[in-house]
Amino acid sequence: MQRIHFNEVVTRDGFQNEPAFVPTDAKVALIDELSACGYAKVEVTSFTSAKAIPMLRDAEEVMGRIRRVPGVETTVLVPNVRGAERALECRADELNLVMSTSETHNLANLRMPRARSWAALGEVIDSVGGRTPVNVSLSCAFGCPMEGVVPEAELLLWAERFAGLGVRGLTICDTTGMADPAQVSRMTAALQARLAAYPGLQLTMHFHNTRGMGLANVLAAVQGGIERFDGSLGGLGGCPYAPGASGNICTEDAVHMLDAMGYDTGMDLKR
Prior knowledge:
Layout: E1 5-8, H1 10-14, H2 24-34, E2 41-46, H3 59-65, E3 73-77, H4 81-89, E4 94-100, H5 103-110, H6 114-128, E5 134-139, H7 152-164, E6 169-173, H8 181-194, E7 202-206, H9 214-223, E8 228-231, H10 251-260
Parallel strand pairs: 1-2, 1-8, 2-3, 3-4, 4-5, 5-6, 6-7, 7-8
């Protein structure tokens, strides 16, 4: 049966929206426990400015204290070259860069047009120079709360452009839970066809459950050949710059569903 890999994003995507600071000790303890559950990756933190994301102002300390488990990659979000330098100093296993396929959302989230994001992220990739794998997350890939439908051609264009820069992976994000299973089936087929020239590329799906279709979308993606998914413990998370963005898919529910269907998730669900 098909092997499915899960990435846990609660300690970055989940915690960034919380109103009260989660103590560093609690973050470290949670990440250490998560690292024993069978995840492929744990998104530990973000190397953005403390002013922008105060919840994650302890990024260096968290990275310095967590237990590194063989086979479990620590991935971190970086916004620019300085963030990448900080992440490399902390021995992150993967750097995650973010850009939106929607111009309006990119302006709201990153305060710059997509063309400037493309140039800035290209600088980050160049600065890393292959020392650490890079993943690019494309936000609002299935729809934008400001613009509505995002043309499939836009997603395919940006996905192929970043793949051409030699990144290891792409995460296709349904940032506000606008996707439906039929759309997911079409998009996964189109993406895999367009990116066939990059056979080693990791393709990850990141769904939100805003409209209750998160697990249905996971299943559609799995049936379309996708093997990697982001999930968040308890479904925590959202996007502060996207109106109506509620939590991510709940990792436990997704793992339970796929385990029950006979897929190999490699996860210790009880733990």
